[in-house]
Amino acid sequence: MKQPEKAGWLRSVWQWWRRPSRLELGTLLITGFAGGIFFLATFQKTMENSNSEAFCISRHEMNNTVYQEYMTTAHYNNRSGVRATCPDCHVPHEFVPKMVRKIQASKELYGKIMGTIDTPQKFEAHRLTMAQNEWRRMKNNNSQECCNCHNFDYMDYSGQKTVAMEKHTEAIKTGQTCIDCHKVIAHQLPDMHGVKSEF
Ligand code: HEC
Ligand code: HEC
Ligand code: HEC
Q1: How far does the centroid of ligand 2 lie from the alpha carbon of residue 155, in Å?
Q2: Residue 17 in this model has a pLDDT that exceeds 80
């Protein structure tokens, strides 16, 4: 008795479907769905492309400055060969903060187009503000990007320098976050003349 029941069910779906108005609606839905998938795939690809180191340094003011500095640090070159690339530190992993960051970044791109940082002089002039933005952002998200790779819980304190071990133990107690102490780990310090507060 099972078979006919199933066929009956299928037939009634087909009956419903083949009414012209519904056929149109159905086609519309299917095309919409396929279109949506196509959009998401393209969107994802664009996100991936603009989330690569190559994209970050395709802008010459980045290539000539922060990139050169970063290449001399442990996050570019170290004994284990594990690297942290620009997006690892500057683009949050989760989708929503990522989108917010992209929108903010597009303002920076806009700044470039408008000539805000398109020469080394102008880049230097805006450097402090950009650094402060990153410090504030990392302070507010508890240095989330750093913690995607590092974690107090898994540090081998016996392998660290005494000062590092002491400071980290203290930081866990007082709730300090990486960026409170580890500024300027990938780039040079901007000109801090006359700056009263870091943030
Ligand atoms: C993609 C992973 C990754 C991210 C993200 C990352 N790190 Fe690292 N970090 C590493 C690796 C790998 C090393 C080198 C380990 C070694 O020496 O073998 C390192 C080394 C360090 C060191 C010791 C060397 C030095 O430069 O003095 C500090 C301090 C440090 N990281 C802090 C940070 C902070 C602060 C952040 C966030 C702003 C951060 N890291 C983000 C992977 C990462
Ligand atoms: C209270 C300040 C403070 C905080 C907060 C802090 N550190 Fe450190 N850290 C230090 C000091 C000081 C050193 C030693 C620096 C040196 O020798 O140049 C150090 C050293 C390190 C090193 C190198 C250790 C070694 O001996 O090779 C790593 C890696 C590191 N910190 C990662 C982090 C990460 C990741 C965070 C956030 C989860 C963090 N630190 C938070 C003060 C701090
Ligand atoms: C290990 C983490 C890390 C990596 C990798 C990293 N940055 Fe940064 N970046 C920072 C931090 C932290 C700041 C805030 C200023 C500071 O402390 O140096 C910053 C600041 C900046 C600024 C603001 C101007 C300035 O000099 O402070 C720019 C622009 C920048 N980064 C671009 C890049 C680009 C491009 C790359 C890749 C070539 C890169 N960063 C790789 C952590 C990182």
Answers
A1: 10
A2: no
